[in-house]
Structure formats: structure tokens, C-alpha cells
């Protein structure tokens, strides 16, 4: 039996009379990389924000890390990491100061923060930059750093909202190495993306169209289901039916 | 608690690494005090004052001697008639006149009471008040000297006439005004901007998904700005005493405590603005137009409230700065105690409580 870490049932978010997320039900297992795909405006961010306790669901059920998103958001917060769609470290703090701040906020001890910062900076090869302001770093490094910060406190689940938006393919590849690394350590990864090549890196993916999940399975299962040999085609077939699209 | 201090330290980094913020924070109070203050004090310092000694006796000579000794005013003795004095005023040749009646000493030694007349040109209310305060203090010190030699108290009273502006209506007590303005600006604008900036940059989301309690975010935001405002308060008070020569007459403790109350009030306003504003520019605009302008217009600092239309007078009552300004004026300039300002203090405290709780509540709702 696989251990379930996220479970939703008819989870919905309605703004006015607009069903941004329209009754989604799915499960995510411990240690897997779960891709959350969908066109612009499909409702990915909205769904993720509900799971993180940032936004109150309109209806439905959801458990994250064993806690109810309606009643136990405080407990959920202790067990998750989150990287938002916007870059979200402090530009006017140095790398070390950012790590100190977020480590401190998650209640890590000073010693723990110092040791982990040290090994993280070595791992990312940022020894010479550790005392530079984050604002002066190139975007790719910032993204990798933001991801590292989101798992700095060793959460059970990490939510990544379009973590590789706007970075070059080489950096994206490195970024995914970091994600695999985290998954190997047992951190469940819940990631949204627009890039279909990234979808292939996921263990399982869900395809969201107009607030609903229209397909769910491993990349090979989905390709078989839609009689094609690439994810682009799967996405295209689904997205064609979408009414809601910014593009 | 450790979380809290980590966060507070971060706030200080933000402030000290941003040149614009630093300038607003520390440059502005200095610039404003100098701007509003210097021209006025210089004028007071060199104001020509005439002393008319109709008595020419022991007591009058002694008091005049004391006045000369302090070198604060440009004092000149001249045996002018009443009309000549008025003429001098009209020509703007003098700012004040101090007149001793013919039988000054005689009155004083026989009845233990005597009167000195002080006439001031109140079209320049600042000078007028200063001259008067100064003359009164010299007279008081002379009185105390006399009292040492005898057990019967002597009472020298000053009869004051403010010509041109009898009620000193547009009394330019700029220091209380500057205090209200600077504290308002710093507390409201800095708080609002610093929170909206986190929303704009997306860092607020990261804070909100962390186990760091939203209420702690609020307090961690307020704490640095409260501290910095205290630094500003001290700067302004020090400048007012040592640069402008305007002493703090009342209780400093009372002044500081009520200033802190006003700061909390402004911080709450800043929090509220941060709920509405979507961008830093909007936050800045609301702070300037919605907060600073009313402070300037309705506190009584620039325009006397008594002269406003009734509607505006009523509106002025909901501006917290008005009450703070009155408090500072009474405590600092007039030297009054709590018993004279409890009403204003109570109103300000009430406003602060309401604003603070609304701000806290709104802040929580926003997380939903
Ligand atoms: N607070 C809100 N009030 C009203 N509508 C909202 C709100 N937040 C999101 N929406 C709408 O909900 C829909 C889904 O938005 P969401 O941000 O979840 O999409 P997304 O899948 O993350 O898209 P993208 O790929 O562009 O990030 C959009 O049409 C958006 O306009
Ligand atoms: Mg999104």
C-alpha cells in the first residue's frame, strides 16, 4: 500500500459565480513527484493555494500531510514548503540572511541553520556569492535558491508553482536534479508547470482544464490513453476543449 | 520569540539598505524642523524690543539690567510716549515694548503689587509669545530674589496687549505640527509600504504559508517602525530644545507616552492602508493624500480650525493628528499636565484602540 499524503474530494473554489476550481478529486503518494498541469487560468495556483492553507476552499474535502485544510491549516503549515509563482526571496538580503530568516521562521536552531546553510551553499556552488544580495544574482540561481529555501526545513511535502518559469533549458535541467534529490530524501513534490518536457520527469501528472481534472496518470499511461507518443499532443487534445484560456 | 526577533532584524535590514527609506526616515524630520523653525527663531533672536522706563527707580533698573544681561533680544531703552510706541509698531521698527509705570517701586514696596505692561506685535505670533515668555521669566526671577529678603510675597503682574492679532490666533507652534506630521508620515507610510511591498514581491505568501503566526507578522512589522519613530521623536525634541531654543515645558514622560499612543494609532492606519493598496505607489499616495494632507489641514497647525466652516470643523474631529497636536501643544509649549489634556488623550486612545483592532481583524481576513 502506498502512503497517501494529499487527498482531495470534490474540492472547489468559487469566486462570485466563477468556478476557478471545480470539484477536483485526486490522491498524491508519499515520495512521488506529482505534476499539476493545465493551461493559463485553468486553476492550478488556486488549487495549490487551498492545499497550502493560503485560501479557504468553498466546498469539498482535502487532507494534506494527514491534516484537514479547513480546520488544521496551522498543522499543515508546519509540514509543507511552498515556492510561489512569483520569485519570493528577499532581494535586499544576502543569501545567508535569507536562509537565516526562513530557517528562523520555521523554528530551526541557530546551529542547525548554520550547518545546513553551509552545506547548501557548497552544494549549489555559491561559496563566493553567499554574502551578496540575492537581488544581484541571475534568475536561474535565484530560482534554485528559492527552491532550496522552500525545503530548507525538511518538509514532508513541497508545493512548487511554476518553479522554472523563464529560465534556460540547462538551468531547468539542474533544477530538476534538485527536485529529484529532494524526492529521494522522501519529500513529496507537487509541481505545476507549462513545459511538457518537464511533465515527462514526473511520476504522475494530472491535466487540469477549466477548473476540472480531465486526465490523471503516469506520462506513459496518458500517452497510451490519448494514442500518441508525446505529452504535447496529450495537452493539446485536452486544451483544445477548454473555454477558459488567456492565450 | 526567536522567530519574532529574526523577523524584526530582517525589517531593520530593509530599512537600512534602502537609501530612499533612510532619507525619509532621518532626513525629513531634520529638514522639516529646520525649514519650519529656523527662519522663525532667527527673527525672534534679533527682534528689536523697546523698554520704556517711566519709573527709573531701583526695581525697574534691576529688572531692565537682567533683561540686558541675557542678550536674547535687541533691547533698547527709549523714553517714548504711548503714541510714539504705537507708531514704532506700525512701522515695524519694534516687535515688542515693555513699559514700567511711573510709580513702579513705590507700588511694589507699599502694596506689594505692581504691574508691567507688555505690548507685542502679534502679527508675528511666534515672536510675540517668545518675548512675553521671556519677559515673564525675567520678572519672575526678580520676584524670587525679592522674596528671599522678606516673608511677604511680592506680586509683579504683567499686563499683556497683543496688538494686530489680539488672540494670537494663528499661533505658529510648528514643532508640535512637525511632530504630528513626521510621526504620521513615518508610521503610516513606512508600515503600509513595507507590507504592500511584501505582497507585491510575493514574499507575503511565503510568510503566510509558514507557521509564523500572522499576528506576529503584524507585530514584527510594527515594532521596528515604532522604534524608529521613537528615534525621530527624540531627534525632533532635541532639535527643538537645542537648535530652536524651544524648551519642553511640561512632563517629558507624558509627552513621550502620548506620542507612543499616537504612533500606534498611525501604525494601525498604515496596516489598514496596506489592506487596500495593491501597489507601493498606491500605498504611498493614500498615505500622502489620505493622511498627511488632513494632518496639515485639520490639526490646526497651519490653518486655525476656529476660522473654518462648521462642516470642516466637525470633520477635523475625526483626524487623530488634531488631538495629538493639541496634546503636544499643551504639554510641550504651555506646560500643562495630564489633568488638562485627559479629554484629548482619551479620544486619541479610543481612536487608536478602534483602528488597531480593525486593522488586526482585517489583516487576518486577508489571509483567507
Ligand atoms: N481572487 C480571485 N478572484 C477572482 N478570480 C480569481 C481569483 N484568483 C484567481 N482567479 C481566477 O481563477 C482562474 C484560475 O486562476 P489560477 O491563478 O488558479 O490559474 P493558473 O492555472 O494558476 O494559471 P497560470 O498558469 O496563469 O498561473 C483565473 O481565471 C483567475 O482569473
Ligand atoms: Mg498559476
Automatic annotation (TrEMBL), chain A:
InterPro entries in UniProt: AAA+_ATPase, ABC_transporter-like_ATP-bd, P-loop_NTPase
Domain ABC transporter residue range list: 6-235
Name of this chain's protein: ABC transporter ATP-binding protein
SMART domains attached to this UniProt entry: AAA (SM00382)
PROSITE patterns with a match to the protein in the record: ABC_TRANSPORTER_2
Lineage: Bacteria, Pseudomonadati, Bacteroidota, Flavobacteriia, Flavobacteriales
Superkingdom, taxonomy of origin: Bacteria
Single GO molecular function: ATP hydrolysis activity
Naturally occurring in which organism (per UniProt): Flavobacterium agri
UniProt entry keywords in alphabetical sequence: ATP-binding, Nucleotide-binding
UniProtKB/TrEMBL annotation, chain B:
Origin: domain of life: Bacteria
Molecular function terms from GO: ABC-type transporter activity
Membrane topology, from the record: Multi-pass membrane protein
Family matches, as Pfam families: ABC2_membrane_3 (PF12698)
Species for this entry: Flavobacterium agri
Full protein name: Transport permease protein
Family statement drawn from the similarity comment of this UniProt entry: Belongs to the ABC-2 integral membrane protein family.
Major location (coarse): membrane
Alphabetized UniProt keyword annotations: Cell membrane, Membrane, Transmembrane, Transmembrane helix, Transport
Compartments reported by the entry: Cell membrane
InterPro entries tied to this protein: ABC-2_transporter_component (IPR051449), ABC2_TM (IPR013525), ABC2_TM_bact-type (IPR047817), ABC_2_transport (IPR000412)
Domain ABC transmembrane type-2 stretches: 136-366
Keyword match Transport: yes
Transmembrane segments: 21-40, 174-196, 222-246, 252-273, 285-305, 341-360
Entry GO CC: ATP-binding cassette (ABC) transporter complex
Keyword Transit peptide: no
Amino acid at each position: 500500500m502506498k502512503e497517501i499524503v494529499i487527498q482531495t474530494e470534490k474540492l472547489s473554489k468559487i469566486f462570485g459565480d466563477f468556478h476557478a476550481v471545480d470539484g477536483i478529486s485526486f490522491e498524491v503518494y508519499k515520495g512521488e513527484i506529482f505534476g499539476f498541469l493545465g493551461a493559463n487560468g485553468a486553476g492550478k495556483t488556486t488549487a495549490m493555494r487551498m492545499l497550502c492553507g493560503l485560501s479557504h476552499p468553498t466546498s469539498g474535502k482535502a487532507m494534506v500531510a494527514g491534516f484537514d485544510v479547513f480546520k488544521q491549516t496551522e498543522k499543515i503549515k508546519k509540514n509543507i514548503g511552498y515556492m510561489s509563482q512569483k520569485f519570493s526571496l528577499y532581494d535586499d538580503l544576502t543569501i545567508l540572511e535569507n536562509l537565516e530568516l526562513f530557517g528562523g521562521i520555521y523554528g530551526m536552531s541557530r546551529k542547525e541553520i548554520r550547518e545546513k546553510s553551509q552545506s547548501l551553499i557548497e552544494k549549489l556552488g555559491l561559496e563566493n556569492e553567499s554574502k551578496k544580495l540575492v537581488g544581484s544574482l541571475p534568475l536561474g540561481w535565484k530560482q534554485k535558491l528559492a527552491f532550496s529555501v522552500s525545503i530548507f526545513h525538511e518538509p514532508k511535502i513541497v508545493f512548487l508553482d511554476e518553479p522554472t518559469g523563464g529560465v534556460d533549458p540547462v538551468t531547468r535541467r539542474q533544477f530538476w536534479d534538485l527536485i529529484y534529490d529532494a524526492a529521494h530524501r522522501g519529500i513529496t513534490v507537487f509541481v505545476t508547470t507549462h513545459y511538457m518536457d518537464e511533465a515527462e520527469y514526473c511520476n504522475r501528472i494530472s491535466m487540469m482544464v477549466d477548473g476540472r481534472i480531465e486526465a490523471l496518470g503516469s506520462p506513459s499511461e496518458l500517452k497510451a490513453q490519448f494514442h500518441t507518443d508525446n505529452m504535447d499532443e496529450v495537452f493539446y487534445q485536452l486544451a483544445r476543449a477548454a473555454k477558459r484560456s488567456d492565450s | 520569540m526567536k522567530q519574532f526577533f529574526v523577523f524584526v532584524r530582517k525589517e531593520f535590514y530593509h530599512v537600512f539598505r534602502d537609501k530612499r527609506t533612510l532619507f525619509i526616515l532621518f532626513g525629513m524630520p531634520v529638514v522639516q524642523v529646520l525649514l519650519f523653525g529656523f527662519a522663525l527663531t532667527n527673527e525672534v533672536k534679533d527682534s528689536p524690543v523697546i523698554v520704556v522706563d517711566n519709573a527709573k527707580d531701583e526695581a525697574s533698573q534691576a529688572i531692565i539690567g537682567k533683561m540686558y544681561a541675557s542678550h536674547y533680544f535687541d533691547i533698547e531703552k527709549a523714553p517714548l510716549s504711548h503714541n510714539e510706541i504705537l507708531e514704532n509698531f506700525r512701522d515695524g521698527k519694534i516687535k515688542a515694548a515693555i513699559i514700567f509705570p511711573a510709580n513702579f517701586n513705590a507700588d511694589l514696596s507699599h502694596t506689594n503689587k505692581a504691574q508691567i505692561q507688555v505690548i507685542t506685535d502679534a502679527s508675528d505670533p511666534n515672536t510675540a509669545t517668545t518675548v512675553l515668555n521671556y519677559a515673564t521669566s525675567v520678572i519672575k526671577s526678580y520676584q524670587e530674589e525679592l522674596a528671599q529678603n522678606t516673608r511677604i510675597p511680592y506680586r509683579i503682574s504683567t499686563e499683556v496687549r497683543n496688538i494686530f492679532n489680539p488672540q494670537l490666533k494663528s499661533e505658529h507652534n510648528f514643532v508640535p505640527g512637525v511632530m504630528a506630521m513626521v510621526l504620521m508620515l513615518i508610521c503610516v507610510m513606512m508600515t503600509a509600504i513595507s507590507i504592500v511591498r511584501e505582497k507585491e514581491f510575493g514574499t507575503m505568501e511565503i510568510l503566510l504559508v509558514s507557521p509564523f503566526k500572522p499576528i506576529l507578522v503584524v507585530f514584527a512589522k510594527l515594532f521596528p517602525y515604532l522604534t524608529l519613530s521613537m528615534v525621530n521623536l527624540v531627534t525632533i525634541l532635541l532639535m527643538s530644545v537645542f537648535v530652536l531654543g524651544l524648551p519642553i515645558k511640561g512632563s517629558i514622560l507624558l509627552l513621550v507616552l502620548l506620542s507612543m499612543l499616537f504612533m500606534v494609532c498611525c501604525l494601525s492606519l498604515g496596516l489598514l492602508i496596506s489592506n487596500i493598496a495593491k501597489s507601493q505607489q498606491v500605498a504611498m499616495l493614500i498615505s500622502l493624500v489620505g493622511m498627511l494632507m488632513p494632518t496639515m489641514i485639520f490639526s490646526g497647525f497651519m490653518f486655525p480650525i476656529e476660522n473654518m466652516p462648521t462642516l470642516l470643523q466637525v470633520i477635523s474631529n475625526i483626524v487623530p493628528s488634531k488631538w495629538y497636536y493639541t496634546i503636544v501643544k499643551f504639554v510641550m509649549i504651555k506646560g500643562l499636565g495630564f489633568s488638562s489634556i485627559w479629554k484629548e488623550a482619551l479620544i486619541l486612545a479610543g481612536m487608536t484602540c478602534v483602528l488597531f483592532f480593525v486593522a488586526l481583524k482585517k489583516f487576518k481576513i486577508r489571509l483567507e
